[in-house]
Amino acid sequence: MDQVWAALDRRVGEMTAEVVELTRDLVRFPTVNPPGEAYTPCAEYVGRRLARSGFDVRYIRGEATPGDSDRYPRTNVVARREGRRAGPTVHFNSHIDVVEAGDGWTVDPFAGVVRDGKVFGRGTCDMKGGLAASIVAVEAYLAVVPDFPGAIEISGTVDEESGGFGGVAYLARQGFFSRPRVDHVIIPEPLNKDRICLGHRGVWWAEIETRGEIAHGSMPFLGDCAVRHMGAVLEAFERELFPALDRRQTKMPVVPEGARRSTINLNSIHGGQMEASADDYTGLPSPNVPDSCRLTIDRRFLIEEDPTQVKGEVIAILDRLKATRPKFDYALREIMEVLPTMTERDAPVARAVAAGIEAVFGRAPEYVISPGTYDQKHIARIGHLHDCIAYGPGILDLAHRPDEFIVIDDMIESARVMAFALDRLLTGQAPPS
Ligand SMILES: [Zn+2]
Predict the structure, then answer these.
(1) Pairing state between β 405-407 and 388-390
(2) How far apart are the CA of 299 and the centre of ligand 1, in A?
(3) Between β-strands 184-187 and 388-390, what pairing exists: parallel, antiparallel or unpaired?
(4) How many A from CA of 189 to the centre of ligand 1?
(5) Which domains are delineated in the chain?
(6) How far does the centroid of ligand 1 lie from the alpha carbon of residue 422, in Å?
């Protein structure tokens, strides 16, 4: 290990207590999304900390994005520190929102309990521990290499858990994630400390509605049952679509391995009268033939698949039913589409993080693809910046679970990896092996 990396290694190790305190402080802001609680104080906490480390700090509200209001402002923080001379910009992007705590906790989810070498709490793993690790990595780097070239940015952004529209997407539209402002982006999502996440599968959400005709339930032959028509859709999906998708394998290294193929989830189905609980109605239903049934599908697709084909195979099944099944009619409403994204393994940011992982763990990284999407999609699609990966501490399986935690040693080790990668990206030098 060269001198700079040895000094970084030491310096990060000296900051163990700091990374723990930082994580605990972040967890104590209950930034639950929805509705988007405590975003502003959490962003300001990050901003104050980075201002002390010499960063220029800006707060940018995702105005008029979903959920934005004066009660729940979508407050993002973007901090930038210029180096002494020209060079590339490296950006660490973390989301500060967390999902609701839910039931089943044995500790207070927002207290930042420390036990057995771990910090417990909602968002420790996903992904306030990653944010803390990246801040410590950058601060260690500033201490060891004060005359660095280029620039370093750290952002804390909102709403990742609900699609990122008030966070990274909003900032990307303003040019925050494009060249020449930024060259390399690391997103410290919890993909495990020795893995590099190159991207994610695509998503297509749609609602299918089958239509019928209302009639008295005692004489169903006088009407046309929309639920039975949906039954025909489900049966065709079972017979044709599910097996076809299951056979479709990908070269994308998705984890877990079960997601290394095309999938579809039937997210919800509603037909006929409202369920009693939905309307606080406790009486009996009235006898009607349902004239509408709606199915929401969540289709995850692969880099090898064309989105037109993804939609086309669903539409083909519906059209065939329309041609062959008496009175069958349907409507299709598209809800959301995200294209798959995958950074190349030999992209500069992937190579730099790989070198860091090799130095810290003495082995090559595992390259993975996330089964679900995260904010990389906005950086690639809106910012047109493709030198972007996810790398951070935290065990992926713990995200969104009760008693979520992050291992303190994992944060320190991944902070070392991030500091090494930062050095490599800014100076462009490969350390002697
Ligand atoms: Zn996350």
Answers:
(1) unpaired
(2) 20
(3) parallel
(4) 5
(5) 3-200+340-427 (3.40.630.10), 203-338 (3.30.70.360)
(6) 21
Centre of ligand 1 from the C-alpha of residue 320, in Å: 40
Ligand 1 centroid – CA 159 distance (Å): 10
For residue 306, how far is its CA from the centre of ligand 1 (angstroms)?
27
Residue-wise pLDDT for 206-232, tens only, equals: 999 999 999 999 999 999 999 999 999
Q: Determine the 3-state secondary structure of 124 from DSSP.
A: helix
Radius of gyration of the chain, Cα coordinates, nearest whole angstrom = 25
Q: Which amino acid is it at 268?
A: S
Q: Over 80: is that where the pLDDT of 386 sits?
A: yes
Ligand 1 centroid vs 32 CA: distance in angstroms? Answer: 13
- Ligand 1 centroid distance, CA of 270 (Å): 30
Residue type, 353: V
In degrees and rounded to multiples of 5, residue 405 shows phi and psi of -145, 170
What is the Å distance from ligand 1's center to 110 Cα? Answer: 17
Tokens of 318: 């519906």
The rounded distance, in Å, linking the Cα atoms of 186 and 354 is 12
% of the chain at pLDDT higher than 90: 91
Question: Could you tell me the two tokens for 171?
Answer: 């900032």
The model's pLDDT over 21-59, given as tens digits with 9 standing for 90+, comes to 999 999 999 999 999 999 999 999 999 999 999 999 999
- 304-339 pLDDT tens trace: 999 999 999 999 999 999 999 999 999 999 998 999
Instruction: Decide: helix, strand or coil at residue 370.
Output: strand
For residue 392, the CA-to-ligand 1 centroid distance in Å is: 10
Ligand 1 centroid–CA 273 distance in Å is 37
Sequence-separated (6 or more) residues with CB below 8 Å from residue 134? 92, 94, 154, 186, 188, 392, 415, 418
Q: Within 10 Å of residue 401's Cβ, how many Cβ atoms?
A: 16
- What is the enclosing helix (H) or strand (E) of 60? strand 56-61
Question: Closest Cα partner for 142 from 4, 16, 45?
Answer: 4
- Of residues 275 and 161, more confidence is placed in 161
For residue 368, which of 383, 389, 348 has the smallest C-alpha distance? Answer: 389
Q: Which long-range contacts (CB under 8 A, 24 or more apart) does 260-263 make?
A: 261/302, 262/299, 262/300, 262/301, 262/302, 262/305, 263/299, 263/300
CA–centroid distance, 348 to ligand 1, in Å, is 23
Q: How remote is the CA of residue 207 from the centroid of ligand 1, in Å?
A: 26
Short-list 180, 210, 211, CA closest to 91: 180
Report how far ligand 1's centroid is from the alpha carbon of 288 (Å): 44
Spacing, Cα 161 to ligand 1 middle (Å): 7
